[in-house]
Amino acid sequence: MTVTHKLINQMIQLQELVVADMQKKVSMPSARLEELERSIAALGEDLPPQVKTHFYRLVKKHPEAIVPVSSGTCAGCGMGLTRSLINAVHKAEELHRCPNCARFLYYPEQLVERERTSRVYGEARKTGIGRFTSPELMMVSLKGTTPAEVLGEMCGRMEQEGFVVDGNHLLDLALQREAIVSTAVENGLAFPHVRGVEGGGMTLLVGIHRKGVKFGGPGRTLSRIFFFMMIPTATSAFYLKLLSGLSRIFRQKEASAAMLAAKTEEELWKVLIKTTRKMIK
Ligand SMILES: [Zn+2]
User: Fold this and answer.
1) What percent of the chain has pLDDT over 90?
2) How confident is the model at residue 125 (pLDDT cuts 50, 70, 90)?
3) Distance 99 CA to ligand 1 centre (A)
4) Quick check: 272 and 129 in contact, CB under 8 A?
5) What is the model's pLDDT at position 116?
6) Quick one: fold of 3-106?
């Protein structure tokens, strides 16, 4: 691994912490985040001074200060990049920035094979939350007894249905994210996710664990409703809005009870569309 690779990894990690902090603030307003904020400060201190100044200047404008190359463009602003710049970013002998938006660039791992088109149940698909998910991504009987097992079931489904090439790799990335700070919040909800996955749209899998599982939520909270998301860089800002909308809807007992009562995947799909219809256009 080159010095540049290490620096890129450090910036990605720092950015994940900054975003995790924002996600916690919108999904769990009462969260105590001192520890997370201390890690952010410590990791930031370690960056070379010039990189640090530029990184924080970018972060102030937008949480994405370092973005992947996505289909030949900068995932931050959509500007097309020259072949020679893309090759240089891939080699990573030094840091490169987008000539248009000045964000740092890195070369992403290839995880998504192709854009999926889903089976259609009724007319609800192309509007509301149906834009990001599909009936085959509804799971009503998660059984795992640890975060790794539950995430493994969900990543397996993503692979089985052709949304990712390698479910195990997706699982590793999801576990790395949980290690920063758990994505479980109050009211039995959890929002595990993997960011910076390029090549497809935002993808949501909904999983129900009737018994409940300890997923690192506050106190003795058991998590029962999982919103597992793959989030391309370009949709990050929208993701925060979606996260805040979902946590507001399912903080209400009636909405989460309806989800937990769904017996089949088709039923869960219908409940999801119905309960989110007003909030998510
Ligand atoms: Zn750019």
Assistant:
1) 47
2) very low
3) 7
4) yes
5) 46
6) Helix Hairpins (1.10.287)
